[in-house]
DNA sequence: GTGATTCACTTTTTT
DNA sequence: AGTGAATCAC
């Protein structure tokens, strides 16, 4: 029964067997954290704790599902009864039950980020503020940040520090906007993502009876990825476990990568203050990766000033060196990685699932997709534009949301004239004015148009109102799928897509069908006791692209995703690509030192995903906003101890090197490729006569129709090229040029950006 | 009120 | 490059 415990090492065993009382587990990368957590929960259940009384909070829906699955394989179907999910999904559920206490109804809408920003834009416009200064993005992140620190609108306005801060940023009205935003969300019976946590805090603060109920309900509270929780989340868990004191948090400060979203490593310190008799267990042995990978990762994180709380080590084999690949362009980077992947697959007999390609931003995936497709290697992209963010999906969901909740202003704005039914901005504005003059909700005006407005506009509105009313009648009789299918058919959006015979139109049509299928699945799933449309909407609002499963049946695929998305995962071979300054570390992060440390932790996370082999790559140039840009290798490359690196050269570089080796003594071997590259190239190029006719600037446009001597050119796509040369001072210089083919001659036309390497 | 065209902005990561 | 907002012609 409990034989699984014998497979654990000592600290792991102690963490699993720890009885009552607060526990903090500092778990290094690859130290078997998930195993400990699942075994601990299994153990609790075996000892007789009712699964209904265990609350386990994870960072993603996927992680929750996986953990539930693993616990189920130990203790059986009882595992289904555990309260397990993300903070957002669990507390959305509780808020749904307790909505009345806060003045909401249980069918409240959940605004996604687009809804929030759209509402903010409206408010900014209504306030007559300049939307160039008050950018919805910025305002949103300020408000979000405030909410995550539990600063409500009143506190926000009353806080002199915040006010001077906003004034300094020339946005003194943010507090007023925040207040209006909160009001409008309330009137719309809607909560945004941050509200789900903020309002839970309010609920527990103002309704002690409710708090008490849940405090006693949950005998054990467990939190995974504790380093990524924000203050708002921490306070919820602290309150919930205040009575039983059975709180177990698992985290790794070295893997904290969500500070930008309000995550607070301080939570770990606060935890020790708030629970003085806490027991701390450190898991430091890595079972995942080779020594090379573990040590390289350690050498990176050691550069951060933030105090290390542990030392991760491994007894695994040394493993192969980290390969460095240099490419001329992002497209070549794609090809080189795809080729390398293909060769590794053949040589070592691996599957596609053994590989992951990790990048800093979603936009980087393109080159790898193309290259993998060309080699017929199946891949799956995690992240990026989520299925649920597609227009056609949001449109149908908006219909469903509005059917369930007629106060939902954002859903209303989306569907009132979709498909076109002759209700333009003017009419909508008129309705809004009438509603506010009469102090009634918009739906009151829309559903009784005749009472409020006369004239032609009324007819179209009335048709719309009748449509929605007919949907509402279905809500109590039909399940989510039947309502949704009916809405899709009769609202006209399915028909509009069906009539669109373009490729995109077809795929949109299929997407809507896919959404309907997923609603069907939701309804057919015996685990869901509430099959109402309202229940479905609550779940679907909190799904992300990471939760999508691919349905083509073939599971042997290479994984492409951002490093953030890779948290908690592991792969045999990992490629970390796009290691260029300004990209990774991200330019935005270079401004403050603390944030650079977060980027470094991100790199640490990326490295520690690899089990056997790690490859890193960078390109000399890449497309950026549709423009070609010269890139420099990332400082992170130079931060890896060169002893761990092996440099893979382009064929050209290999040829050059072999010639050089005939003359040169092999001084540093493969040491520090990046640093020595410039000098090496300089050595080769120096003997050649330097071009004299461009004295002031190395790449000044000249009237010559040929490339100057001493310039190496890499042809890129679309008539662009990367030119490299060594200037008089021995510096390696690069520039993007544009070629135009005139007859047989290639003309040097213009120069883009110029940078010294 | 609708559709076409131009303009401006984006790009860090995600619940 | 690609999107969404703003502006203009009908």
Folded structure, characterized:
- Residues 678-704 are annotated as: Disordered.
- One of its GO terms (molecular function) is ATP binding.
- Belongs to the helicase family. UvrD subfamily.
- Helix content is 46%, strand content 16%.
- It has 757 residues and is α/β, with parallel strands linked by helices.
- It has five domains: 4-100 and 200-285, Rossmann fold, CATH 3.40.50.300; 109-188, Arc Repressor Mutant, subunit A, CATH 1.10.10; 322-386 and 550-647, P-loop containing nucleotide triphosphate hydrolases (Rossmann fold); 396-546, PCRA, domain 4 (Orthogonal Bundle), CATH 1.10.486.10; 685-756, SH3 type barrels.
- A seven-stranded parallel beta sheet has the order 13-14-12-15-16-11-19.
- Strand 6 (220-223), helix 12 (231-240) and strand 7 form a beta-alpha-beta unit.
- Helix 10 (193-206) packs across helix 11 (208-217) and helix 14 (291-301) runs antiparallel to helix 27 (593-607).
- The longest helix is centred in the last third of the chain and has 22 residues, at 503-524.
- It is globular.
- The termini are far apart.
- The protein binds a DNA duplex (15 and 10 nucleotides) through residues 59-61, 86-89, 112-113, 121, 135, 137, 193-194, 196-197, 257-258, 260-261, 360-363, 383, 417, 420, 422-427, 542-546, 562-565, 583-584, 586-589, 599, 602, 623-627.
């Amino acid at each position: 029964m409990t034989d699984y415990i014998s497979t654990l090492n000592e600290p792991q065993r102690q963490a699993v067997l720890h009885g009552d009382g607060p526990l903090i587990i500092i778990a290094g990368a690859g130290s078997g954290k998930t195993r400990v957590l699942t075994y601990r929960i299994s153990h609790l259940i075996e000892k007789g704790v009712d699964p209904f009384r265990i609350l386990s909070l994870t960072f993603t829906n996927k992680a929750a599902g996986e953990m539930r699955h693993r616990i189920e394989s130990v203790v059986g179907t009882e595992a289904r009864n555990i309260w397990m999910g993300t903070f957002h999904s669990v507390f959305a559920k509780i808020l749904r039950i307790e909505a009345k206490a806060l003045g909401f109804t249980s069918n409240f809408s959940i605004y996604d980020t687009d809804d929030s920003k759209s509402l903010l834009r409206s408010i900014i416009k209504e306030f007559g503020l300049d939307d160039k200064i008050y950018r919805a993005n910025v305002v949103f992140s300020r408000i979000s940040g405030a909410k995550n620190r539990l600063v409500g609108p009143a506190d926000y306005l009353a806080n002199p520090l915040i006010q001077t801060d906003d004034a300094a940023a020339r946005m003194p009205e943010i507090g007023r906007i925040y207040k209006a935003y909160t009001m409008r969300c309330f009137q719309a019976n809607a909560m945004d993502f941050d509200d789900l946590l903020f309002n839970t805090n309010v609920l527990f603060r103002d309704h002690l009876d409710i708090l008490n109920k849940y405090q006693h309900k949950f005998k054990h509270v467990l939190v995974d990825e504790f380093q990524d929780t924000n203050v708002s989340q921490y306070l919820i868990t602290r309150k919930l476990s205040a009575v039983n004191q059975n709180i177990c948090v698992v985290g790794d400060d070295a893997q904290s990568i969500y500070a930008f979203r309000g995550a607070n490593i301080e939570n770990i310190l606060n935890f020790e203050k708030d629970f003085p008799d806490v027991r701390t267990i450190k898991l430091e042995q890595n079972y995942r990766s080779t020594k090379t990978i573990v040590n390289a990762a350690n050498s990176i994180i050691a550069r951060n000033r933030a105090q290390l709380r542990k030392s991760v080590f491994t007894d695994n084999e040394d493993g192969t060196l980290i390969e460095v690949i240099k490419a001329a362009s992002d497209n070549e980077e794609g090809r080189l990685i795809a080729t390398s992947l293909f060769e590794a697959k053949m040589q070592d007999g691996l599957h596609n699932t053994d590989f992951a390609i990790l990048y800093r931003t979603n936009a980087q995936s393109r080159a790898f997709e193309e290259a993998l497709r060309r080699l017929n290697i199946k891949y799956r992209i995690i992240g990026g534009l989520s299925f649920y963010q597609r227009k056609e999906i949001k449109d149908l969901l908006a219909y469903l949301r509005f059917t369930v909740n007629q106060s939902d202003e954002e859903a209303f704005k989306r569907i009132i004239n979709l498909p076109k039914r002759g209700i333009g901005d003017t009419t909508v504005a008129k309705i809004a004015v009438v509603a506010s003059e009469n102090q009634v909700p918009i739906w009151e005006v829309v559903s009784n148009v005749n009472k409020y407005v006369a004239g032609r506009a009324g007819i179209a509105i009335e048709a719309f109102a009748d449509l929605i009313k007919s949907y509402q009648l279905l809500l109590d009789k039909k399940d989510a799928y039947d309502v949704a299918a009916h809405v899709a058919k009769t609202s006209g959006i399915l028909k509009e897509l069906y009539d669109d015979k373009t490729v995109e139109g077809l795929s949109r049509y299929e997407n809507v069908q896919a959404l309907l299928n997923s609603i069907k699945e939701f309804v057919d799933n015996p685990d869901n006791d509430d099959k109402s449309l309202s229940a479905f909407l609550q779940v679907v609002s909190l799904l992300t692209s990471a939760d999508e499963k691919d349905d083509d049946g073939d599971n042997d695929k290479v994984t492409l995703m951002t490093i953030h998305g890779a948290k908690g995962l592991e792969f045999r071979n990992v490629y970390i690509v796009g290691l260029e300054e300004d990209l990774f570390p991200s330019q935005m992060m270079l401004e403050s030192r603390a944030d650079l440390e977060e980027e470094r932790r991100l790199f640490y996370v990326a490295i520690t995903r690899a089990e056997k082999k790690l490859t890193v790559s960078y390109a000399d140039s890449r497309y950026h906003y549709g423009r070609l840009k010269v890139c420099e290798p990332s400082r992170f490359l130079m931060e890896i101890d060169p002893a761990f690196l092996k440099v893979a050269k382009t064929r050209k570089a290999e040829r050059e090197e072999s010639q050089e080796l005939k003359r040169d003594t092999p001084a540093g071997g493969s040491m520090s490729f990046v640093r020595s590259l410039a000098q090496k190239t300089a050595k080769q190029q120096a003997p050649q006569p330097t071009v004299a006719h461009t004295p002031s600037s190395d790449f000044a446009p000249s009237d010559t129709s040929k490339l100057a001597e001493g310039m190496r050119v890499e042809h890129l796509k679309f008539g662009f090229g990367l030119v490299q040369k060594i200037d008089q001072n021995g510096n390696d210089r690069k520039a993007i040029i544009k070629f135009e083919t005139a007859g047989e001659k290639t003309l040097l036309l213009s120069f883009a950006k110029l940078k010294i390497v």
